[in-house]
Structure formats: C-alpha cells, structure tokens
Amino acid sequence: MKQTIDDYILNVLKDLNYKKVIVTGATSGIGLALSRILVFKKAYLIMAVRNVLKGNLLKDRLLEEFPKAKIEVVCLDQGDFNSIDKFVNKIAASHPDYDSLVINAGVFNSNKGVLLDNGYPIVSGTNMFGPIYLTTELIKRDTKYKHKIIFQGSLAKNKSRYKTFDNGFMNPFRNHFEQYNLSKLGLYNAFNYFQNNRTDNYSFFWAEPGISGTEIIRRYPLAFKKIAQKIMNTFFAKPLEACLPAASIINNELPSGISVAPGGLFHVRGLPTFIKFNAKIINPEIMEKALKSIYERK
Ligand SMILES: NC(=O)c1ccc[n+]([C@@H]2O[C@H](COP(=O)([O-])OP(=O)(O)OC[C@H]3O[C@@H](n4cnc5c(N)ncnc54)[C@H](OP(=O)(O)O)[C@@H]3O)[C@@H](O)[C@H]2O)c1
C-alpha cells in the first residue's frame, strides 16, 4: 500500500528525545510546518526568527497544541551580519549542544533595487550571503558536540545561469526568478564548500522542499497570491509535506554530504528520497568571491 504523508510523520519519523533543533524562518510556511512536526516528535525546538513577537505568538500556539513541548524563540535576522553575530554568541553560550540547524529562512520576490544594510541585494543577501556567514561563524567555534547543518535548498538551483559574480549575486535589478535561482545556486555552492572543508563534528546536508504554496510569494497582489497558493497547495506539496526532506535528515543518522528531495515526479512533491549531487553547477569562483566579499564588508 502506498505510504501517506500522515503515515510517514506518525510511523517513520521517530521521537527526538528533546534533541535541540534550530529552525531559521520558523514563523511561516515550511519552517513553521517543520517546527510543528519537530515539537510533535519531541524535539527541543529553537525558533530562530527575525520577528520575535510573531515567534512568541506562534510558540504559544504550539504550546496550546502540545503543552509539554520545549520551545525557545531566539532573534535572528538572516540578512544582517550583526544579528548573525549575536545569534552565534547566543547559541555558543546557551545551546552548544544543538543537534541540527536548519537554515530555512528565505525570500523570493523582494522589491527590485533594494539593498540590505550590508549592501547585498535582499534575495542573495538573505538566501546566500547570510547563510554563508552564519555557517562560517558557527563552525569557527570549538565544539565537543556533533552538529548537522541543513541547507533548505530548491530545485531552482538547477535553473540559473551563472556568468559573473557581480551580475549573478550583486545585481538587485535582475528579474525575481533569476535573483532567486542564483541565490539557491550560491547556497548549493556553499553546501559543497562546507562539505569539502568539514571537520569531524559537523555534517552538511541539502534539503529540497519541492514546490509549496507558502508566504514566499507574499509580495504579489493579494488576489493573485491567494489563487497561486491554492493552486500550489492543490497540485504540489502542502508545507507539511514540503518540510519532510529536512525532517528526515534530522531524524536519521546519515553520512555528511547527502541531498534529500521529494520523491515524486520532477521532485516537486512526495515522500523524501535521496538525490544525486549536481557537480555541473559547482564553480569554485563563487565561494572564493563570496567569502572575500563578506569579510571585506565586516
Ligand atoms: N515554497 C516553495 O515552493 C519553496 C520551494 C523551494 C524552496 N523553498 C525554500 O524554503 C524556505 C522557506 O520558504 P517558505 O516557502 O516557507 O516561505 P515563507 O512562508 O515566506 O517563509 C519564509 C520564512 O523566512 C523568514 N525570513 C525571511 N527573511 C528573513 C530574514 N532576513 N531573517 C530571518 N528570517 C527571515 C520569514 O519570516 P517572517 O515570518 O518574519 O516573514 C519566514 O518565516 C526558503 O528558503 C525557500 O527558498 C520554498
């Protein structure tokens, strides 16, 4: 008999015995759905959010549903290096024993031409440069614990055409799809870089959620957004399904470097399955220039 999403959550995912799991962007869509599953499976959930008020309201809602849950809300703006510094200090001081970090926060169609305070376009700054800085700073800390770092990727990484670093990642005027696809290509290159330079205590994973009708299209006009979300959630994955690749990595002991995506047609939905590494989209220049540009700005 074909396994359902409910079966998978109830019977395949195991209890996590209050292992600490940090989820960035836990206030919406896939991050919120993942948070709910993690709490259901008895993780100690750390919601890393830019809007702490919203995070606390959602924490209260989860506690109503799961009164014995262990949940903490920590501030993190993934597009702000100072906020990342404070977050890394907080994790090193209070939760050095965290098991998994899911770098899930992301944006799609921001205002064109707008830059973050650190000078990066919002999309590449949030989806790529922030995660690279966050991971680099976290792994600099001495640790006696083992950690999984899980990058929330996208099929979109395969759709981008990279020509130059500046036009690829520093141009806030490209169309929304190109900026988004390239940011995920940059994140994939980061995943490969961290995997190749890893030390024993860190494992790196790539999780692809498929396609899901979330708030990622929040900047489209309301009527269009509602229709698009309905279509996406009917024909593609609901957030509860889309978060399963990341949930399955947290739940299993896997060798570092593994990628997981939905197992259905074109990997847009379905239960988690392993996917092959796509070496064709790796270009060492991307991480070389990304790290140089980040630390020149710091
Ligand atoms: N939906 C899809 O079809 C799809 C497909 C492939 C990959 N993904 C990836 O899945 C991840 C989650 O997306 P989603 O679809 O769940 O979108 P979503 O509903 O818009 O959720 C995005 C989350 O990221 C947070 N966020 C945005 N900018 C942030 C920042 N600077 N600092 C900290 N948090 C920030 C948002 O916080 P607020 O609540 O404060 O806005 C929200 O919690 C993204 O990385 C996305 O690229 C999604």
Protein model, in words:
Helix 3 (52-65) links the parallel strand 2 and strand 3. It contains eleven helices and eight strands. The chain has helices spanning 5-12, 29-40, 52-65, 81-94, 122-140, 165-169, 176-196, 222-235, 239-242, 244-251, 284-297; strands at 20-24, 44-49, 70-75, 100-103, 147-152, 202-207, 259-262, 272-275. Helix content is 45%, strand content 14%. The structure holds NADP nicotinamide-adenine-dinucleotide phosphate. NADP nicotinamide-adenine-dinucleotide phosphate (NAP) is lined by residues 24-25, 27-31, 50-51, 54, 76-79, 104-107, 126, 152, 154, 209, 211-212, 214-216, 218.
Spatial strand arrangement across the major sheet: 3-2-1-4-5-6-7-8
CATH superfamily, by name, is: NAD(P)-binding Rossmann-like Domain
> How many angstroms does the end-to-end distance come to?
55 Å
Count of individual helical segments: 11
Strand/helix succession: HEHEHEHEHEHHEHHHEEH
User: CATH topology, anyone?
Assistant: Rossmann fold
Number of DSSP E strands: 8
CA radius of gyration is 18 Å
Count structural domains. 1
**Which range best describes the helical content: under 10%, 10-25%, 25-40%, 40-55%, 55-70% or over 70%?**
40-55%
Main sheet characteristics: 8 strands, mixed
Mean pLDDT score: 95
CATH level 1 name: Alpha Beta
Assigned CATH architecture: 3-Layer(aba) Sandwich
Overall spatial form: globular
Low-confidence stretches: none
